[in-house]
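User: My collaborator and I are trying to settle a disagreement about how two of our proteins should look. Neither of us wants to argue from intuition anymore, so we agreed to look at predicted structures for both before our next call. Could you fold the first one, then the second, and keep them clearly separated?

Assistant: That sounds like a sensible way to settle it. I'll keep them separate. The first protein:
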Amino acid sequence: MVATETEIANADRKAINDWLPVTASRNAKWWYSAFHNITAMVGAGVLTLPYAMSMMGWYHELGQHAFGEKLGLYIVVPQQLLVQVGTYIVYKVTAVMSIA
């Protein structure tokens, strides 16, 4: 009897799952993974953002110094908002994908 592609793929997946220690037992509750995801995001990213912003300074002041009072704000503030909103979106997507 010849094995089909699906049977081979299932056998490969089972072999990998048997080998990985993470998939050996799945007795954890959903709130364990939610807690670990939250602590990973908070520890890795959110707690370092204030420090990073304090070390970089305020970009709009640098933009005003370089390009003038009004043009500096028009150049720097949209970029700064894009970075902040983009970071927020990445954290939300990561949280949703890891919980689902």
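The second protein, kept apart from the first:
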Amino acid sequence: KQWYQRRVRGDAGHFAAETGSTECTACSPGNFAKDVGAAECSKCEPGYQAPHEAATTCDPCEEGSYSSADGASCIACSKGYYQDHEHATECKKCAPGTYADVNGSKYCKNCD
């Protein structure tokens, strides 16, 4: 009699890395698995986030924010900084003569 080792077919957002696995593991925040039966999770691209376990996709960071290094969250730009594009990896400093007085600014205001 011949025995075959099989990988458990987990739901999307889960993976089973080892042959003979008995269960699937949820992808950790910052990672995703879009297909059923994944052997590993993929890290979110810079500028994107997957804030919860078992993600099947990564979402772009919105204007006024940038992605954390681990891809688990988007972080609002600090006062004095802005971001006018989606899926950014950093915020931009306001130029001289302009300011951003709130966190998460999408643009800088002109001084009066």
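Some points you might bring to the call about the second protein. Residues 30 and 70 are 6 Å apart (CA to CA). Residues 1-8 have pLDDT under 50 and may be disordered.
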